[in-house]
């Protein structure tokens, strides 16, 4: 997270075999609306704090694909894959973040996604 504050990372969101530029991405550790770790609706686990990802996609063709990934009444939600590359000390590290979509806000030119980070992988 501190790397993202020092340098502007480029994020790519992967969904249904397509790639979307994921701009204005922010990752923050914030409280969740539960008092103790719990299973939410028998579908997913929620801790008292979670890493949340927020960002914007300007390609509105993604909208029909999002319904399969949204948490809530949908019990068959899918993870969203987000990738980025960090350049540090002359090395390149590829990060893959997996997140669950909690909500989205759509306008005529963009869609803002709010997600909870569920796992992270690097190579």
How would you describe this protein?
This protein is mostly beta strands and 123 residues long. It has a single domain (2-122), classed as Pnp Oxidase, Chain A (Roll), CATH 2.30.110. The protein has two helices and eight strands, in the order αβββββαβββ. The protein has helices spanning 2-6, 63-66, and strands at residues 11-15, 18-31, 38-40, 44-46, 49-57, 80-88, 91-106, 111-122. The strands form two sheets. Strands 1-2-5-8-7-6 form a six-stranded antiparallel beta barrel. The chain has a two-stranded antiparallel sheet with strand order 3-4. β1 (11-15) and β2 (18-31) form a beta hairpin. The longest helix has 5 residues, at 2-6. The two termini are 17 Å apart.
Outline the fold blueprint.
Blueprint: H1 2-6, E1 11-15, E2 18-31, E3 38-40, E4 44-46, E5 49-57, H2 63-66, E6 80-88, E7 91-106, E8 111-122
Antiparallel strand pairs: 1-2, 1-6, 2-5, 3-4, 5-8, 6-7, 7-8
Cα radius of gyration in angstroms: 15 Å
Write down the CATH topology: Pnp Oxidase, Chain A
* Uncertain parts: 1-5
| Largest sheet: spatial strand order | 1-2-5-8-7-6
Short description:
It contains 2 helices and 8 strands; from the N terminus they run H-E-E-E-E-E-H-E-E-E.
Q: Which terms would index this structure?
A:
single chain; Pnp Oxidase, Chain A; six-stranded antiparallel beta barrel; 2 helices; 8 strands; disordered N terminus
């Amino acid at each position: 997270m501190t790397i993202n504050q020092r340098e502007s990372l480029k994020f790519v969101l992967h969904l249904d075999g397509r790639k979307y530029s994921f701009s204005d991405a922010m990752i923050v550790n914030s409280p969740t609306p539960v008092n103790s770790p719990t299973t939410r609706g028998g579908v997913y686990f929620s801790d008292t704090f979670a890493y949340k990802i927020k960002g914007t996609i300007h390609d509105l063709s993604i909208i029909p694909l999002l319904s399969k990934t949204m948490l809530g009444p949908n019990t068959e939600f899918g993870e969203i894959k987000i990738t980025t590359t960090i350049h540090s000390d002359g090395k390149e590290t590829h990060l893959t973040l997996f997140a669950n979509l909690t909500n989205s806000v759509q306008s005529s030119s963009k869609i803002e996604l709010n997600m909870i980070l569920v796992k992270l992988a690097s190579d």
